[in-house]
Amino acid sequence: MTDHAMQARLLLAEARVPRYTSYPTAAQFGPLEEAVYRRWLQEEIGAGDPLSVYVHVPFCRELCWYCACHTRPTRSDRRIEAYAAALLAEAELLAAALPPHGGIMHLHLGGGTPSILGPAGLQSLFATLRHRFGFRPGAELAIELDPRMLDASWRDALGELGITRASLGVQDIAPDVQRRIGRLQPVEQVADAVRLLREAGVGGVNLDLMYGLPGQTARHVADSARFAAQLNADRLAVFGYAHLPAARPHQRAIDTATLPNAQERLEQAEQAEMVLCSEGYVALGLDHFARPEDELARAAAAGRLRRNFQGYTTDAAPVLLGLGASAIGSLPGGFAQNIVDERAYAEAVAAGRLPVIRGLAVTAEDRLRAGLIERLMCDFSLDLAQPAARAVINTALPRLMPLERDGLVRREGTRLLVTPLGRRYIRQVASCFDDYVTPAATRYSVAV
What we know:
alpha/beta; globular
């Protein structure tokens, strides 16, 4: 590769573009009235429609310095119990606002650390959801877990809840990297957590890794990827660290001088993919890997892979409902986000209000662009001959030309194909179809 080509790749890697877990992205959200959200719920959910539900728990016992989630540290059990009560109250309000529907097909608990609610708190939440919404046969019940909080007492609890999939944050197994991100987590602890999940009957185990962390090298990333493969995880996600201290003040604890540069980040991402593919995983989309027999890999092979706020998924439900402070939902009519501050959120619920505060009504063109971007993010290819999308595609083609010159995309007949080299830059390819993105925006993370 010439120096010019490498420099072009590095400039693209440092560009700030959305992750496209939605389109339009949350950066476009503005004020949303509760009445509008209630109208969407009533008018856009059919009697047999399956539902997807995301529940957000915005607490951790300690805050990891790299974290970009809506979460905060707390040692107060009373605060957690008050939030758990507000969650149940919101679930009741939301259930009462819905027309007849087909029940929950996908349930995802994220945070934060959802297990901070404790076994009893989670059992109450699941009982309310089961009673007020119903779970469809074969529903996926997923939860994000901190390996440092799991012990044998959780084995029975997770089994009783019927959890079918769990995600564990690993990030990096090297103690020196862990010290730099404020998350000490011995490999034995992670291995024990995976064993407990298997013993609890959890059929799907996901592990999350990261690159671009302070003091991290390609060797660190490779060792972590190899360790995750040895645990026989069903799925893996390898995320690039997003250093945004202006938006996440706790990230100021990370020494910026110790962060890998663009070329090092690129090498780390490529090293992770090389190791995981050599261990038998299938690379999916931007940053996911799965065993060939996993449903996520099968969905990708069949062109059924989806992308939403939880990343890559098999979730085909037309409606995603958000529960909890800062949770985001999506319906055909638009997006709705709850109040971020958990105390203001609880006050709204106590007053009998659905606690939405921000969102966006989407247009027919938004939905069209969203479909094009999702297929690019999932399939790395796009049919350019779609009659309904002709105008949008025509505006995107000039933006694609520099990427085509650099060998990141190519056209074969009426199809746009992302090349193997270009897959690392799929976010830039997708941004060519984004009518809102501004190249200089600092709210987004770097592309690689």
